[in-house]
Amino acid sequence: MVTAVFFGDSITAGAGASDPTRRWADLVAAALDWADAVNAGHSATILQHTPQRAVATVGAAADQNGRDTYLDRVAAHRPAWVLILYGLNDMRLNDPAITVERFQADLGEVVDGLVASGVAARRIVIGSPPHLPAGAYALHPPWDGGGPALHARYGAACAAVAASRGARFADVHRAMADGGGDRLVSPDQIHPNDAGHAVIAAAFLAAIRAS
């Protein structure tokens, strides 16, 4: 049994941070003295399960999707808290099988499964997909399927799942937009820099500390 598991893609794994201690997950763990926290970030993955294999060329995106791996990556640790930051890659991956509706349904299944495994709903925190600069949506094919409107829909899906399950919601996207916007993103235009990771951590901490 551990205090917390951080569940997400490359941003949770720490991409863009200059040092592992500057990852948003590590910053949250340090602030709350979660010395045994587990980082279950997996780069280049999406959350939703897809029945198609059109994305096989990007490997882990479909094969290691969050919905199909959360039992091993998260529930097996028997965490007291689970912090989820998924959706950015789902939004960006340019494949017709990848939809915001499927993302919302699969995120709901993950939360339901975590609650069934013993995690209290109020100890699950769902973050909205982080900020991207306007020009970033067209970069890095096949990760070029998103846009501002779709980005907002994924954020709304995260909020809806949190509200419907009694979980907590961290509006990461809004926190980054208000806290520096493009200045919080690394030169690759996708991953947050150290300042961006700090803002993400602050958004999660605010959600955790809310009544």
Radius of gyration: 15 Å
Quickly count the domains.
1
Sketch the major β-sheet.
5 strands, parallel
Strand order of the largest sheet: 2-1-3-4-5
Described by its quaternary structure, the protein is single chain
CATH architecture: 3-Layer(aba) Sandwich
User: Total helix count?
Assistant: 9
* CATH level-4 homologous superfamily: SGNH hydrolase
The residue fraction in helices comes out at 40-55%
Task: Give the rounded overall mean pLDDT.
Answer: 94
Report the top-level CATH class: Alpha Beta
The class by helix and strand makeup works out as: alpha/beta
Question: What do these coordinates show?
Answer:
The protein is an alpha/beta fold. It has one domain (4-209): Rossmann fold (3-Layer(aba) Sandwich). Helices cover 42% and strands 10% of the residues. The protein has helices at residues 10-13, 24-32, 60-63, 66-73, 88-92, 100-116, 148-165, 172-179, 194-209, and strands spanning 4-8, 38-41, 81-85, 124-127, 168-170. Strands 2-1-3-4-5 form a five-stranded parallel sheet, with helices on both faces. Helix 2 (24-32) crosses helix 9 (194-209), helix 4 runs parallel beside helix 6 (100-116) and helix 6 (100-116) packs parallel to helix 7 (148-165). The longest helix has 18 residues, at 148-165. The two termini are 25 Å apart. The mean pLDDT is 94.
